[in-house]
Amino acid sequence: QVQLVESGGGLVQAGGSLRLSCAASGRTFSNYCMGWFRQAPGKEREFVAASSRSGITTDYADSVKGRFSISRDNAKNTVYLQMNSLKPEDTAVYYCAGSTTYSGRYTPDYWGQGTQVTVSS
Questions:
Q1: What percent of the chain has pLDDT over 90?
Q2: Region 51-61: what's the mean pLDDT?
Q3: Which residue has the higher pLDDT, 28 or 65?
Q4: Which residues contact 32 (CB under 8 A, 6 or more apart)?
Q5: Closest by alpha carbon to 80, among 93, 94, 63, 101?
Q6: Between the CA of residue 7 and those of 66, 94, 102, what are the distances in Å?
Q7: pLDDT band at residue 103, thresholds of 50, 70 and 90?
Q8: Contact call for residues 50 and 61 (beta carbons, < 8 A)
Q9: I need a labelling partner for 14 at 20 to 30 A (CA). Which of 5, 8, 20, 89 fits?
Q10: Closest by CA position to 7, among listed 105, 83, 94, 106
């Protein structure tokens, strides 16, 4: 079992920045590819970003490219999502996720409980 706990969500004005963190426990963190998803009211959960085990290879949704950045610190068992130039459309519950393979990053095996991000205009 892998437990994922997100933190860092909150309220921010449009154009501002926010950094989300996800702490993992239960398994060796470096064995998992990590990613972020989000779900806005009335919409399905969507992929945001993912990182390979080393953090060298990353993948982003077109809607966040150039604004969001995923990174990880395997020594701290933590993955981050740096969000810049935030827009009201980014308002959603953000979920941390883990997968046993990079090819499975769009269908994660483990999920966090989610953290709310609200961007005001």
A1: 91
A2: 95
A3: 65
A4: 2, 24, 53, 98, 99, 100, 110
A5: 94
A6: 22, 10, 24
A7: very high
A8: no
A9: 5
A10: 94
